[in-house]
User: What shape does this take?
Amino acid sequence: GAGVSQSPSNKVTEKGKDVELRCDPISGHTALYWYRQSLGQGLEFLIYFQGNSAPDKSGLPSDRFSAERTGGSVSTLTIQRTQQEDSAVYLCASSPLRAVPGRLFFGQGTRLTVV
Amino acid sequence: QQQVKQSPQSLIVQKGGISIINCAYENTAFDYFPWYQQFPGKGPALLIAIRPDVSEKKEGRFTISFNKSAKQFSLHIMDSQPGDSATYFCAATPDDYKLSFGAGTTVTVRA
Assistant: This one.
């Protein structure tokens, strides 16, 4: 596709269950980012990939959160033992190697609701 | 702790009016200041951006004003249209990959 694709669009899960969120970046984009958007909180940085490596995981809120990227393309964000405070929109973005800093291409997000 | 403070949280403007959104920051390492526009159900999209060596940048009806000494910058939407109704985020980065976003401003333009 032409843009960043995320799946699923919506996910409702029970507290304590694990969830996996998927991101397909724009083809050829080497950098990939995960952000979390909570109501009234703006966008919170979670993790940054350059290729398959994650040089910055500093935004992951707890060890229940993990992410991986394979083949320099698809990324999966996994949340284990979900809690109600994990409810948010999870946004994935990508950018080319020599991008203008701050020029990110975002997907439409996955809305996660933990009940 | 939010590194970029954005206000107001929401605003309503009449068609043809001017929308003004303000942002402030503390980190003097920030060197690039983009604004993102987000429509409901969509991801944010880059709207306009500025570097601190420029005091103003204009693209169509959108203008960024930058005050380096005050560490403040603002977005002006001139001749606001109903299609401009969206949430706007200011952001800042020290010229690398990590963006710090403001909390967002929901703009509603009434016809």
User: Anything to note?
Assistant: The two ends of chain B are 37 Å apart (CA to CA).
